[in-house]
Amino acid sequence: MVICCNWGIPGKTEIHEIADILIENETKLHQFEIRKDPEVISRLLSPDFIEVGKSGRTFDFKAIVRSMQQEENTGWEIHSQNYECIPLSDTVIMLLYKSARRGQLGEYKGFCKRSSIWVRSKGQWQMKFHQGTPCQEFKLEDNISCKQPAFKL
Known about the structure:
alpha/beta, 7 strands
């Protein structure tokens, strides 16, 4: 499910198109192979990117790239759903959604509410800010990250 809050910035059709692009970009960052590719990461994240992790720690662009390079493939996948696209201006969009990690045995952990701020510069959207906040377990719906139906618990 994707909700687009439209305050006239930009037009209704355009905001849905932008939402599709931003969700596609966001979910690319959920994929282990993409996270290992510094060239793609540099296109998706702004050089002045900041993340406030679910631990409460703050990371800059260099720290995130370094962290991604050190990740090992543990078999966990990101489940994401309930995207909300909120225009803050004609070049700044906030994306809200829920996520959880799915293990190889189908177990879900790490339930979070997430927010990202995407900025369009020179015709390209880049994430400038991201925050994950732990939350209570929620009902799983279709997984946008993998475009797969939710696994029932």
